[in-house]
């Protein structure tokens, strides 16, 4: 599908297998989420714009570059929180704007409970961070919020996507690139990704 980018990096495949393992404890789980997020963000930001920046090396002037775009990291609470540190370490000048959504367990629809975005956009590129793209409802709602905030470039960086969620996000927002570590088989009757990794929030925060 156009604009969907599953990673084919061996480090991602290796780390993702340990992440999925039900025997992986929450300390290791958080470490892997952080590392995989950084690897995916590296791939997702390959098209960031640059502007010239002159610097002096100890030996000579050098015609270098700096990032031209102001970047916003948008973790979807709770599970997206664990992806922030890894991505932020690559782009420490990024702003972090949290969006709080949870899925109603019965309807699987996202319920918004936290949004402190200011009136005017303060960034030009947003990376939405959420490990799980299941039905896609949370991702679609977050892109809706960012579009209302008038952000020009929006990307989704997740870890595992179900075909249903990818199709939903793509149908509503086809211009939003979807970067993932893997695309899984399907959703089960409770809206969980199979084979997946279980509940990403509970496994990170030890609440399961
Ligand atoms: C999980 C996950 C996504 C959402 C994905 O969050 O982190 O935000 O479900 O499902 P969807 O694609 O069907 O919307 P959850 O609602 O479990 O909240 P939590 O992160 O606070 O545990
Ligand atoms: N949220 C999760 O944490 N896991 C899933 O498989 C689906 C939604």
Please, could you describe this protein's structure?
By secondary structure, this protein is of the alpha/beta class. It has one domain: Rossmann fold, CATH 3.40.50. Helix content is 33%, strand content 29%. It contains six helices and 15 strands. It has helices at 10-20, 26-44, 81-90, 137-148, 163-172, 200-205, and strands at 4-6, 50-56, 61-67, 71-77, 95-96, 99-103, 110-115, 125-129, 132-133, 153-157, 160-161, 178-180, 182-183, 186-187, 193-194. Strands 1, 4, 5, 6, 7, 8, 10 and 12 form an eight-stranded mixed sheet that branches. A three-stranded parallel sheet has the order 9-11-13. Strand 4 (71-77), helix 3 (81-90) and strand 5 (95-96) form a beta-alpha-beta unit. The chain is globular and about 60 Å long. It binds 1-O-pyrophosphono-5-O-phosphono-alpha-D-ribofuranose (PRP) and uracil (URA). Uracil binds at residues 79, 132, 134, 192-193, 196, 199-201.
Any idea of the CATH class? Alpha Beta
Beta-sheet strand percentage? 25-35%
**Using only CA atoms, what is the Rg?**
17 Å
**Which architecture name does CATH use?**
3-Layer(aba) Sandwich
Question: Strand pairing plus helix content: what structural class?
Answer: alpha/beta
- Biggest sheet features: 8 strands, mixed
Cofactors, ions and other ligands in the entry = 1-O-pyrophosphono-5-O-phosphono-alpha-D-ribofuranose, uracil
How many strand elements?
A: 15
Shape verdict: globular
CATH topology title: Rossmann fold
Number of domains: 1
Question: Which residue ranges are poorly predicted, with pLDDT under 50 across at least 5 consecutive positions?
Answer: none
Order of helices and strands: EHHEEEHEEEEEHEEHEEEEH
What's the helical proportion of residues?
25-40%
Instruction: Please tell me the overall pLDDT.
Output: 97
- Quote the distance from N terminus to C terminus: 34 Å
């Amino acid at each position: 599908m156009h604009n969907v980018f599953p990673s084919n990096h061996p480090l991602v495949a290796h780390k993702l297998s340990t992440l999925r393992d039900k025997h992986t404890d929450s300390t290791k789980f958080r470490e892997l989420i952080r590392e995989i997020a950084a690897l995916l963000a590296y791939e997702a930001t390959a098209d960031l714009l640059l502007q010239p920046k002159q610097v002096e090396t100890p030996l000579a002037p050098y015609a270098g570059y700096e990032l031209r775009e102001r970047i916003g990291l948008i973790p979807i609470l709770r599970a997206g929180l664990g992806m922030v540190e890894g991505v932020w370490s690559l782009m420490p000048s990024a702003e972090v704007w949290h969006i709080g959504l949870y899925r109603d367990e019965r309807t699987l629809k996202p319920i918004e409970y936290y949004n402190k975005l200011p009136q005017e956009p303060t960034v030009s590129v947003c990376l939405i961070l959420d490990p799980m793209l299941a039905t896609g409802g949370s991702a679609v709602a977050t892109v809706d919020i960012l579009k209302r905030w008038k952000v020009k470039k929006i990307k989704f960086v997740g870890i595992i996507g179900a075909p249903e969620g990818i199709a939903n996000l793509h149908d509503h927002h086809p211009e939003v690139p979807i970067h993932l570590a893997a695309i899984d088989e399907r959703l089960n009757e409770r809206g969980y990704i199979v084979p997946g990794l279980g509940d990403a929030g509970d496994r990170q925060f030890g609440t399961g």
